[in-house]
Design a protein that fits this description.
Blueprint lengths: L2 H17 L6 H8 L3 H8 L2 H25 L6 H12 L5 H16 L1 H21 L7 H22 L2 H20 L17 H10 L1
Helix pairs in contact: 1-2, 1-4, 4-5, 4-6, 4-7, 5-9, 6-7, 7-8, 8-9
């Protein structure tokens, strides 16, 4: 990638974080970042290709942070990596990236022809990255999917409410649930219910007394 192209991606990203993607046109964008619409087309081909390049940069920054969290000594477990990555995402200087990712995700639902290919690539790369951070198991794809969904849901809640304390506590609780599940060999840790109708033992005894 040329230095000029990289510079334009960085400036376009800053613009999109401030103004969003919906309704984006090249001329106002070009004027704001000190270039021309013609040069943007020269470097990227089209507005859609420029958006794809910018979103690839957002994904690279976010996934790079997660990879660093996994690589740190003592942070290789999914629980520690998720907590470290969460702290990165809700920093004021980074939350704009997450807001932009959610915007494109919604646009992809409404306009899959334009944004769908990017969204599918993002989902697959996140699953692979999280899966690689987990201990070997046949359930890793399902666990990675769950982790991704939890992060997405909590980020959406944080963006909606601004409550970092509550969402962080929820993430930590999820991490404890993951740890407990791993210690129980993947089971929920609950004892199976007893009784004729699949209810608790106390309920079963009460029903037998009525017979």
């Amino acid at each position: 990638m040329s230095e000029r192209r990289r510079e334009l991606i960085g400036k376009a990203l800053d613009y999109m974080v401030m103004h969003g993607v919906a309704g984006l046109t090249l001329r106002p964008l070009a004027g704001a970042i000190g270039t021309s619409a013609r040069l943007l087309v020269y470097h990227f081909g089209s507005k859609d290709d420029l958006i794809t390049a910018v979103m690839d940069e957002v994904r690279a920054r976010a996934q790079g942070s997660f990879a660093e969290a996994v690589a740190r000594p003592g942070k290789g477990a999914a629980k520690g990596a998720m907590r470290t990555f969460w702290a990165w995402t809700i920093r004021p200087e980074n939350i704009g990236y997450m807001r932009l990712l959610f915007e494109v995700q919604v646009l992809a639902i409404r306009d899959p022809a334009t944004y769908g290919p990017y969204l599918r690539g993002t989902s697959g790369s996140w699953l692979e990255l999280i899966e690689a951070s987990l201990p070997p198991s046949r359930r890793n794809r399902a666990v990675a999917t769950l982790c991704t969904a939890v992060i997405d849901g909590l980020l959406l809640e944080y963006l909606s409410s601004g409550d970092g304390r509550r969402t962080t506590r929820a993430l930590e609780h999820f991490g404890r649930l993951m740890t407990d599940t791993a210690r129980n060999g993947g089971s929920s840790g609950r004892k199976p219910a007893t009784g004729r109708t699949g209810t608790s033992g106390r309920t079963g005894r009460r029903e037998r007394g009525r017979a």
